[in-house]
Amino acid sequence: MLSISKKANRFRNWTGNVQSQPRQIALPQSLGEVVSIVRVKLRVLPAYRLRYQSLRMPLDECLSSLDTFKQSHRHFEFFSFPYSDTVQVKFMNETSEPSSANQQWSYLKKMVVENGLFWLLSESCRLRPALARSVSRLSAQSVPAVNESGYSHELFATPRLVRFYEMEYCLPAEHMGEAIREMRQAIEQERFNVHFPLECRYVKKDDIWLSPAYERDSAFIAVHMYKGMPYEAYFARMEQIFRRYGGRPHWGKMHNMTADELHQVYPRLPAFLAIRSRLDPEGMFVNPYLSELFGLS
User: Fold this and answer.
1) Using H for helix, E for strand and C for coil, what is the string for the chain?
2) What pLDDT was estimated at residue 289?
3) Per-residue pLDDT at 105
4) Which range, 19-23, 55-59, 146-150, 156-160, has the best average confidence (pLDDT)?
């Protein structure tokens, strides 16, 4: 079974050049459910540098500029903080500029602020959940202004030491803005104690049968909850919104879809399962989770 780091997919290329898929469990589209992988051939690019920019922006300005941002940048994502009207916007674009001289200092700041300090704040929220709203606002106001250049492998991969639960759904790209507004409204109305931001990115459509982006340009939206804090009610409410917009779940993260529901949103699932059954008639590559997930006998 291939193991690909989660952060490798953090800035999925809107132009479709990056095709790697992270996973925490066996994905149904992976060859591991049908046969054993004995050889992998990768198509790679020569080493290249990127310019990375991070900035704060009002939520309304970001949502009104989504089409411009996704078309004007090689990689674009944003983070919407609950209970705050400030978002963090991130861009990455290819550059011929040399690597920034302060990369070691930048890495140190990421370790101290994005991991050490955020862990302390998260533990405070776990012990006193009512602090989550204030911590989310503080995080929004503390978003750093960053403008640096470096090789892609240095900027794509960032350390993530704070542990959390995660659910991510893929929606038609045109629904990104309205879905975010509805999610934020639900969070504020039901007063969920959550301090992790909504993570939002775009992916170009593909032709992979069980890809969440199959045959449609897509918006991926992820919700998180710090490990040790109740997440079930929050995730269930967000999942209602995702599914109303025709959402498809990320296979390697939490979701509650049944086999019948998955057949409705993945049109090529029956064809895949027919091939799976033909190649593995005795179910050698099926575990209890996959059996329940796809309604296999």
Assistant:
1) CCCCCHHHHCCCCCCCCCCCCCCCCCCCCCHHHCCCCCCCCCCCCCCCEEEEEEEEEEHHHHHHCHHHHHHHCCEEEEEECCCCCEEEEEEEEEECCCCCCCHHHHHHHHHHHHHHHHHHHHHHHHHCHHHHHHHHHHHHHCCCCEEEEEEHHHHHCCCCCCCEEEEEEEEEHHHHHHHHHHHHHHHHHHCCCCCCCEEEEEECCECCCCCCCECCCEEEEEEEEECCCCCHHHHHHHHHHHHHCCCEECCCCCCCCCHHHHHHHCCCHHHHHHHHHHHCCCCCCCCHHHHHHHCCC
2) 87
3) 65
4) 55-59
Residue predicted with more confidence, 34 or 232: 232
pLDDT for 4: 30
Mean pLDDT of 259-264: 95
